[in-house]
Amino acid sequence: MKGEYIGELEELVLLTVGALYQEAYGVAVMEEIERQTGRNLNISAIHSVLKRLEAKNLVKSEMGGATKERGGRRKRIFNLTNLGKKALDESMQVRSQLYNQIPQISFNFS
Question: Range of 39's domain?
Answer without folding.
Answer: 8-101
